Each structure stands twice: as structure tokens, then as C-alpha cells.
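Hi L.,

You mentioned the student needs an example of a multi-chain input paired with its predicted structure. This one should do, with 584 residues in total across all chains.
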Amino acid sequence: MSSNDKMIRTKDLTFLEKIYLPEIVKGLFLTVRQMFKPKVTVQYPEERFEPPAQFRGRPVLVHENGVERCVACGLCSRVCPALAIEVQAAETPLDKERYPEKFEINMIRCIFCGFCEEVCPEEAIIMSNEYLLVFQSQEEAVFGKDKLLKSAEEMRPRLEFLRDHR
Amino acid sequence: MAVQTDELPRKSRILQALEDQNTSVQFDDALESEMVLNMGPQHPATHGVLRLLLKLDGETVTGCVPELGYLHRGYEKLAENCTYYEFIPHTDRLDYLSPLSNNVAYVLAVEKLIGMEAPPRAQYLRTLISELARISSHLLWLGSLAMDVGALTVFMWSFREREKMYDVFEHLVGARFTTSFTRIGGLAHDLLPDAEKMVRDFMKQFPEQLAECEKLLNRNRIFVERCDGIGLITAEQAIDLGLTGPSLRACGISHDLRKAQPYLIYNDLDFDVPVYEGGDTLARYYVRMGEIKQSISLVNQIMDRLPSGPIHAHEPKKVLPRKERVYTKMEELIHDFMIVNFGENPPVGEVYQAVEAPKGELGFYLNSDGKGYPWRLKIRSPSFTNLQSLPMLIQGAMISDVVAIIGSIDPVMGEADK
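Structure written out for the whole complex:
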């Protein structure tokens, strides 16, 4: 193969390379040069990274004027590979007729695959850009509707991304 | 019993004391007895939960039994209770250093079973993500092999590059690690302009950074002497054991599935398969470095030729419909519910589809009985097969070389244990 680099084995090393001292100087030159290059580390608690719209953070439920879009069809809980979602439907006098009486996502089980968002026929459950999740107990990790609901305005970048690219 | 120190010029006091009491103590000669050493499953150099039982004669390894299964999650059985679509996130967790190649391999197998093909743009993007995954996987391997033989700087540098790569994935795929990007009949979403720019920018600066890593290793006496001539395997032995991937190509055999059974668009791309003679750790190092360079050229070729067009196959009963159609059209809404609830229902039959993953031949065997769930799913994972060669490679090596040899065959236990 023509593009192969030549393999350098022990016997191919020159005398200078074998005595190693000049090589140490060369190596140090390479590593010291790194000090003057721009740093790539993010100073985490002070500096936070802003995820792009396509980033899949924790799933949230979208509401408009306080009414969630969800109609409790249960498709998200059917498709969830980690069985993290529990939905209980009830009737409502509104146009959509059904709403989720109980909507819980166990954030310990959730694997952030985004399948719930992909199958949702109402654009009701979507992936937000939040990636900071802290719990102190297992009970706290089960997010009910109070923690899941977010207004459509807040979620605009993701909703626009979904409309244009999904 | 009081023993005077000055009365015992040669023997230690304790030996003298034992002799005085007429005990029958025998002292073993350390070189005549063999010792069994457990390496792993929590040893940092075994790259995951690999356990090795080593039989030692002094510092020389005279026997080795690898023990697998510490990360067994039963994915093959689990697949029988998942629809074809639901299993996609599980493939991320096989070879977790190159989840994108696993995603691609799995959907290619399912598409072969259904008998459909993704449109050209999706094929190009799948090739692109496979090659990016290869670079990212080989970068981790480079860092860990260098660290195993004591070169910590290369580890830092290759992880920095890998971090940049994950930033690219974040924009390209939407996740850093667990990608779940491919879909049956296409991809989750198209390549966005900002992601395209990031891939190009990364590819522009990456060759220079790789060259710096090479400068530290290629003519470094310590690295070369540590890797030269250890972990030897001949071409015949490698074929007998079913070795694939870079480890096979380091024995002088030019077998690469991208050339041998071209899939996706590899036929249209121009690339070489790096092959080296020797079958030792150093040869495997050169093969993988060559592969990274070939992948850079492949990514650049794909970015230049990327066609426009749809990224989903037009198969309404097999491929999830587009979102805006689900919201407005009745037919698509019904398909959405049917596909999610009852699955793709491919025809009765069986297929085997293999791709050249970074570690070797990754194959998915699917057996369908016409229902929504696979009747059987078998994963032919390269790490599992490559680990078979470990006893042969380690035989006769020094114990400090064991670490470098494990590093050179690049096992990932998520994939070996499934």
C-alpha cells in the first residue's frame, strides 16, 4: 500500500535517538509549546455551556396559557425504551377531550433518547436544553407535571428545530 | 528465650529461633513455584471489567485465561422483547466508544430484512458518522495505549481532540455519548449548517494535532521498545481465531469489509486500507494511525460530495412519518400509532449484515417471524472475538507487557459482554 508510513522499529532508531537525551529536549519543546496555545477547558461552575437547539436535554411537557398540549394518548410511554414514563388519562370539557391526570417521568430511568418527542402526535413532550439534574432521593427523581410543564414560548428554539428538521 | 545479637553473625535471629525449637519449616524457592495473579476486573489497565487469570513464573506469564461477562446485560434476549425501532438506543451501549457505527450497523441490518434502502443523502451522512466514530474511537485507543506504556502527554492531547469531536457530535447528533442517531429508513434529522461548519473546522485543525501526537511517539525510544515485538500473532493463527479489524490487518492480511463487501457508499470513495507486517503491538499501532488518516480523507471527500435531497425513505408503513404531517394528516397519524405500537413487521426471513466498525467486523443477525419483534437477534461483536486471541498474545510476555497487549487489541467490554 503506497500511503502507508514506514514502520520504525527499535533497530531503525538512530544513535542520537537511542541515547535519548536530544529526544527529551525535542519532546519538552513540543510540550512546552502547548502552554502558549489557547486553552480548551471550560471553567464549569462559572462558565456554562449553552446547548444548541438540536441538543437533547431532559424531556418537558409543553403548555400554552397553562393548558398542557398533551392528550394522554400514551404513545410516549409505549415507545420509551427505558419504561420511564407513566401516563394516566382523564376527561376534560376542553376541545381536546382528554388530558393527563398524572404524568410522571422517572428521571433515573430516562436515557435521553428523544423517542417520546419523536412519536408524540401533539408536539406536547419535547426535549429541552437542560442538562443539570440533581436529586437527593429516588422519590425526588420522579418528575410530576409540576416539574415537567414549560411554556411554549420558553421552548421556542426546540419547537422551531422540530418543525424545520424533523 | 534470649538470643544474643553478637552470637549470630550470619543467620537472622528468627531463623535461629526456629531452628532452636526444632520446627520443620521449609522455605520455597520463589523461582520454582508458579503464582496465579488476578488482573482485573477493576484494574485500570484492563479497559473495563475484563478479568485475566494469569499464571506467572517470576514475571513471565505462562498462561492466561480471560474471564468475560461482568458487563453482561442480556441485550440479545432483550431485543426479542423490543420492536425494531425500540432497540436503536440499546445499540449505543454495545461499543460505547463508537455508538454511531453500531447505530448504522443495526439499521442497515433491519433495512436489509425489510428490503428497502435509505436515500443517497442519508447514505452519505451515515458514512460520515461511521468515519467520525472511527476517528473518535481510535483517538481514545491512542490515548489509552500511550498511557499504558507511560506516555501521559499523548493521553491528554488525544482526549482533548476527542472532546472537540464530542462537541461536533453535540451539534451533529444532539448528544455527546448516547447518540441514537440513525432511524430505520433514514436518520433522526438532517445535517444542520452549524454542524457542517463544525465538522469542517475540526477536520481542518485535526491533522496537525495528530501529527504532534505522532512526533511524540513514532521515534520515541521508550514507546518503540515497549511495543516492538510483544503480543505476536501470525496471520494463520489470526485467521483461525477469527480476528478482524486492525488486529488482523497488522498481520499483513488486507481484509476490510469496506473493500471486501462494500456497503453504504464506500464503493464511490477513494481510500486505502493500511496493512502492516509483523503482527505485534507496534504494527497494530501503525495500522490504527493509518486508519485515522484515511478516515480524515474520507470525511473530507464526503463533505465535498454531499448530495442534497430527502433523508428518509418513502415507505409510509415502515418509516416513521415526518412531524408536520403527523400534526395535520390523518393517514400519517395512523401510521405513527401503528408503527410505534406494532412495529415494522418485516417479512419472514433472516439476514446478516456486517460493517467494518473501529474494532473489527460488527455484524447483526436478525431472524424475523413476520411480527413486530425480532424472533432472534445475534450480535457478532468484534471485541468478543478479538479477546479470544489474548491467551495466545500474552503467552510468554512479561507482566508489564500484558497491559500494552490488552491496549493494542482495543477491547470494549460493553460489546464483548453484550
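You could point out the following to them. The domain at 75-314+345-379 of chain B is CATH 1.10.645.10 (Cytochrome-c3 Hydrogenase; chain B). The first strand of chain B starts at residue 35 and ends at 39.

Best wishes,
N.
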